């Protein structure tokens, strides 16, 4: 038994039947072609903490449907870590998000500049949504397809109240200022 293979639903049904017949873990392991420690781990991991309202057919309170549902729930709870903190990818993504790049732009630029370091757009959005990038919050970098999306970047108005700029307004202001700077540098250097 060199590698562990997950139990299938049919194996769980067979396991429940053998437990209800009163077989030991060693006997069940021999009949199923598994290790006794595997049988013990599966039963202990998926048994009910409290006895069920109806009488259980085995002394371990093991039921195959409950075990199957718990297995599915455990698989869904696994957190994938595509961006490890202080890795090259993580720092690259945070740096570009601070410059108001969209996740699409970041993923595409990363593919062009670093073909070995590929990251997906959905991964960047997932990290923003979950709040796994402490420097970047959803409020700081909201990429909504809605035309009325409002960012959390305030701008002073004439009356002293803050109003919020949308990303399109912010982008326009940024590029106007950038073009003026380039024009100034072009004129002064020449």
Sheet-strand content, in percent, reads under 5%
Q: How much helix is in the residues? A: 40-55%
Helical/strand content category: mainly alpha
Which strand order do you get reading across the main beta sheet?
1-2
Put simply, the count of helices is 8
Ends distance: 76 Å
Give the overall shape. Answer: elongated
- The total domain count is 3
Rounded to the nearest angstrom, the radius of gyration is: 28 Å
Please count the beta strands (DSSP E, at least 2 residues each).
Answer: 2
Query: On the 0-100 scale, what is the average pLDDT?
Result: 77
What is the H/E order?
HHHHHHHEEH
Q: Would you identify the regions where 5 or more consecutive residues have pLDDT less than 50?
A: 142-165
Main β-sheet, in a few words? 2 strands, antiparallel
Describe the structure.
By secondary structure, the protein is mainly alpha-helical. The chain has three domains: 9-76, no CATH class; 81-143; 154-189. 52% of the residues lie in helices and 3% in strands. The chain contains eight helices and two strands. Strands 1-2 form a two-stranded antiparallel ribbon. Helix 1 packs antiparallel against helix 4, helix 2 (25-32) packs across helix 3 (36-46) and helix 3 (36-46) crosses helix 4. The longest helix is centred in the C-terminal third of the chain and has 23 residues, at 167-189. The N and C termini lie far apart (76 Å).
